[in-house]
Amino acid sequence: MKRVLITGAAGFLGSHLCDRFIKEGYYVIGMDNLVTGDLKNIEHLRSLPTFEFIHHDVSNYIDVPGELDYILHFASPASPIDYLKIPIQTLKVGSLGTHNCLGLAKAKGARILVASTSEVYGDPLVHPQTEDYWGHVNPIGPRGVYDEAKRFQEAITMAYHRYHGVETRIIRIFNTYGPRMRLNDGRVLPAFIGQALRGEDLTVFGDGSQTRSFCYVDDLVEGIYRLLMSDYAEPVNIGNPVEITIKQFGEEIIKLTGTKQQLVLKPLPQDDPKQRRPDITRAQQILGWEPQVTREEGLRRTYEYFKSLPEEELYKAANYRF
Ligand code: NAD
Ligand code: UDP
């Protein structure tokens, strides 16, 4: 049985990856320090003989007994309000955490895939973003803690590939959504749906003309799986190229939820990218991948999930654990 270590396993994407690898017949070791994740996301896996959970901060030396075939490094705060509240931890998990994962991959002879992000392009001057664009990042702005950690992550990953011959994969993930996002994580989709469910107005930052391109989680997981199984070591964008303004997105959520509330404008956070859309030519050519789930369908599934949560979840404040 092949063995895979997934860091960030109790988070949104990590928990979906655990599900996928269990389904594919792997022995899955989920690792997480629960700083932004929640054990309830993997509760359904914990009694399986092919799943184990290790509570550990990957910014510290990682010790995993036995063999490993694959490592998926997904541990990191991912939403702007999370990484603004825990900036040092964010820098550490992207740098030291990645270094530890790469060292483990080298020691075990495992192939490693690291979760990078469209944020490496910063507030992009090239649109849509191709993988050969080097980006436009403010290193000392508040978002720099995330963007620069992820840029360092890519650099050290390529160095381990070139210098140590470790089999590495780098995925640049564009805004992804779906069940198990945290309602209070501040990202736009849970923010809007949470506000609609609580009967509050929907807070649009800036004038809402900034764009994003939203990918449903199942499509992303398929892209990750294909990239891991490929022999391609350069970064690959995975995201849905259908672009929308945040104002239009708010209007879609109003329609989806049937709320009587309205959009209200709030100040735009510093360095908020004005536009974002992946060029997915590389993923199409190398992985034969493109998204299958329309935004209408993905939003419907995600709304069903949020509606099914106990009411107290709607009013829970973010709780960071160290
Ligand atoms: P999330 O916050 O739901 O999950 C992150 C998980 O990592 C949490 O369970 C958290 O507790 C854990 N974690 C954080 N620091 C850790 C540490 N030092 N040691 C061990 N565990 C730690 O976020 P997500 O949306 O699932 O994002 C997962 C990964 O994907 C991140 O690396 C993020 O940068 C990347 N990513 C996500 C998106 C997206 O749209 N969701 C986009 C680009 C990149
Ligand atoms: N946003 C918004 N209202 C909110 C939360 C976010 O208008 O309540 C905006 C945010 O300013 C950004 C976009 O929605 O322009 C996407 O934000 P998110 O935090 O989801 O992701 P990121 O900025 O990392 O793409």
Automatic annotation (TrEMBL):
It comes from Siphonobacter curvatus. Pathway: Nucleotide-sugar biosynthesis; UDP-alpha-D-xylose biosynthesis; UDP-alpha-D-xylose from UDP-alpha-D-glucuronate: step 1/1. Its EC number is 4.1.1.35. Belongs to the NAD(P)-dependent epimerase/dehydratase family. UDP-glucuronic acid decarboxylase subfamily. GO terms for biological process: D-xylose metabolic process; UDP-D-xylose biosynthetic process. It is found in: Golgi apparatus, Golgi stack membrane. CDD domains: UGD_SDR_e (cd05230). It is a single-pass type II membrane protein. GO terms for cellular component: cytoplasm. PANTHER family: UDP-GLUCURONIC ACID DECARBOXYLASE 1 (PTHR43078:SF6), UDP-GLUCURONIC ACID DECARBOXYLASE-RELATED (PTHR43078). Its main location: Golgi. The keyword Transmembrane helix applies. Its cofactor is NAD(+). One of its GO terms (molecular function) is NAD+ binding. Residues 5-302 form the NAD(P)-binding domain. This is UDP-glucuronate decarboxylase. Keywords: Decarboxylase, Glycoprotein, Golgi apparatus, Lyase, Membrane, NAD, Signal-anchor, Transmembrane, Transmembrane helix.
